[in-house]
Specification:
Number of helices: 3
Largest sheet: 2 strands, antiparallel
Strand content: 15-25%
Strand order of the largest sheet: 1-2
Radius of gyration: 21 Å
Helix content: 25-40%
Number of strands: 2
Structural class: alpha+beta
Distance between the termini: 64 Å
Length: 78
């Protein structure tokens, strides 16, 4: 494990050290996933693998607006 210390700015920003960016292929414009894991913050570049792992995570459920429309249609039948 490699650990580096960095400082958070007043805007909540910090710099990922260059050697870490390079080893992970993080370039300007790379999307980053930020996960709170207990008392740890996990930061990882959004890769195709991450997109594939999370694809469909919320599928199969109606959106709130669709559910409200369905309920209204049911009310109108009576």
């Amino acid at each position: 494990m490699v650990r580096r210390i960095t400082t958070v700015s007043t805007k909540g920003q910090f710099v990922i050290p260059a050697e870490m960016r390079t080893s992970l292929g993080i370039e300007p414009g790379t999307r980053i996933a930020v996960t709170l894991d207990g008392q740890r913050i996990v930061i990882e570049p959004v890769s195709e693998e991450l997109v594939e792992k999370t694809r469909g995570l919320l599928s199969g459920k109606r959106s709130l607006s669709e559910e409200l429309k369905r309920q209204r249609r049911q009310k109108d039948k009576w």
